[in-house]
Design goal:
heterodimer; A: 263 residues; alpha/beta; Rossmann fold; 2 domains; four-stranded antiparallel β-sheet; globular; B: 315 residues; mainly alpha; two-stranded antiparallel sheet; two-stranded antiparallel ribbon; 15 helices; 76% helix
């Protein structure tokens, strides 16, 4: 079943067409990767999909068939879209557990006034949220860090904490912006299994990643962007051997070398 | 164990209650009780700012404006409109909430320091209106405030006001602590650290900031009403810009985001000027110097720095 459909997305900054008429669709349980050289417009495309930038006049975004094109970021989350960020966006002065608990807040039922007057429902809600967040941290192997202040945790852990927080919103589609950036080999290995696991649970995963080994290993399909346009799309093996993709990454001279290397 | 005590809600309230109970025993005269009452009143206003600044990370430079609205409500209501003083008191607090909603609604959709600038303007306007609408407010000379009676019991005298203001502070502290540990409080602290990430998990950032702003305005309104009723007289000085800055300074000196910090900050800026009057013309200079020294050596604020000191050494 198709979860996320993006149609004809485009945006310009000044005279620069940063993303130009890009369309794609991602199904439940699928890992869909977006790759491309630096400046190709990957993160801009993410920001268009997640409502941070407005999609162009002809652009359309649908989640599970529902048109969500004009919704702001916080409303998109209610429709089942969650994301992580290229530069860590962690609540540094809260504990790791509280970070994930904030992720649960859409399922929290107490009003601001009830919270202010400390209604008995608030304590019950807090308990329920804490249990849900802890279960999620357990699943992502983060339970041991629950009580630690997020600001004191290592980078690789924080990357996973961001994913846990995003999962706490119970998304239908999860967008991961360079989850492996800055992670060492062991941390990448953990991520690899984690992403596969998330997809297996029925979530559509959209991934921006520079670690090609990771991309080629876990992706079902790959979209290659360059200069804001679609260059190629298909299974990892197909994209890897696409002449246009190789020249976009390595230049024309590089393409010749690559051909020689492939024999 | 120690860490749990230092951070627990109940411990904070018990400690505050203990201090409130001990002050009258040690106070040699009713003058000291009056000063302590002022500390509780300004602590209440600072607590409102703690919710706004400490939890949600938004700065208001016009909170004395809300103090002024609350104070003049209990003066103008009975004197000009013939309203009951107690009713005027609650109407004043509600009016603060409404005005905060009207001011905050358009402003808090914008990111950045717009709230600080908008509230700065708001505070100046309130002070200006209180100064110039002399027919209603009495102008720069101020206005007499009717005494308040509760079920035929006339509330007056330093001791009575001490307990009334202390009670109000205890309630305010309990509510502020409730918020901190609740789902709403978590979203406020979250958007303080990263608005992008808070939005990214579905927090309606603008609505949350607005709620915090309205609550903090009501705190200031209640404090203003108590101040006017206790003093029996009020001038536009209550709503002055310097007063707004003083409230912000209380929060920062005490420790931004800490409930006890708001009380300590209020005590610092209320008691110290009284104590320093013996230095006569050097009073202001020494006060400024002391503020600088405290901020240099306890940059996180008095209570927050002490808390960290204890927690770092706790097993």
């Amino acid at each position: 079943m198709t979860i996320l459909e993006a149609e004809n997305l485009g945006i310009s900054f000044g005279g620069l067409r940063a993303v130009d008429g890009v369309s794609f669709a991602v199904a439940a349980g699928e890992v869909f990767s977006i790759i491309g050289p630096n400046g190709a417009g990957k993160t801009t495309l993410f920001n268009l999909v997640t409502g941070i930038y407005r999609a162009g006049r002809n652009g359309r975004i649908r989640i599970a068939g529902e048109d969500v094109t004009s919704l702001g970021p916080h409303l998109l989350v209610r429709r089942g879209m969650a994301r992580t960020f290229q530069n860590l966006q962690i609540f540094f002065r809260m504990t790791a557990l509280e970070n994930v608990m904030v992720g649960c807040h859409l399922s929290e039922k107490t009003s601001f006034l009830a919270d202010l007057f400390g209604w008995p429902t608030v304590a019950r809600q807090n308990r329920a949220t804490r249990e849900r967040a802890l279960a999620l941290m357990e699943r992502l192997g983060l339970a041991q860090y629950a009580r630690a202040e997020a600001g004191s945790l290592p980078y690789g852990v924080l990357k996973r904490l961001e994913i846990a927080r995003a999962l706490a919103t119970e998304p239908k589609v999860l967008l991961l912006d360079e989850p492996a950036a800055g992670c060492n080999a062991v941390e990448t290995e953990v991520l690899d299994r984690l992403i596969a696991d998330i997809a297996k649970s029925g979530v559509a995963v959209v991934l921006i990643e520079h670690d090609m080994k990771l991309v080629m290993k876990i992706s079902d399909r790959v979209l290659v962007l360059t200069h804001g346009r679609r260059l190629a799309e298909g299974a990892p093996a197909v994209v890897r051997n696409d002449a246009g993709v190789i020249s976009a990454y390595l230049g024309d001279a590089g393409a010749t070398e690559a051909n020689r290397a492939h024999g | 164990m120690l860490a749990a005590v230092v951070t627990s809600r109940l411990a904070t309230l018990l400690f505050l209650a203990l201090v409130i109970a001990v002050v009258p025993v040690l106070a040699p005269s009713s003058f000291y009780l009056r000063v302590a009452s002022l500390v509780w009143i300004f602590a209440l206003a600072a607590l409102g700012l703690t919710i706004l600044m400490g939890y949600a990370g938004q700065v208001s430079l016009g909170h004395a404006g809300f103090l002024g609205i609350g104070a003049y409500a209990v003066a103008v209501g009975p004197a000009r409109l013939g309203l009951d003083p107690l009713l005027s008191f609650f109407l004043g607090a509600a009016l603060c909430g409404l005005v905060a909603y009207a001011v905050g609604k358009p402003i808090l959709r914008l990111k950045g320091y717009y709230l600080a600038i908008a509230t700065l303007g708001f505070g100046l306007i309130v002070a200006l209106v209180l100064h110039s609408e002399a027919a209603v407010t009495g102008g720069p000379d101020g206005i007499q405030v009717a005494r308040i009676t509760l079920f035929g019991w006339r509330i007056s005298g330093a001791t009575t006001w001490y307990w009334v203001t202390a009670g109000a502070l205890m309630i305010g502290a309990a509510l502020a602590l409730n918020i901190a540990a609740s789902p709403s409080g978590r979203t406020l602290r979250a958007l303080h650290d990263s608005e992008v990430a808070a939005t990214g998990v579905g927090v309606d950032v603008a609505a949350r900031k607005l709620a915090a702003f309205v609550v903090s305005a009501v705190y200031a309104g209640v404090a203003g009403g108590l101040l006017a009723l206790m003093n029996g007289f009020i001038t536009p000085e209550t709503a002055s810009f310097m007063h707004s800055i003083e409230l912000v300074a209380m929060v920062i000196i005490g420790g931004t985001g800490s409930v006890l910090g708001a009380v300590v900050g209020s005590a610092f800026l209320t008691v110290l000027p009284q104590a320093l009057t013996i230095l006569q013309e050097y009073e202001q200079a020494v006060l400024g110097l002391l503020i600088m020294v405290f901020m240099i050596f306890l940059p996180a604020g008095i209570v927050s720095s002490l808390k960290r000191f204890v927690l770092d050494r706790a097993p």
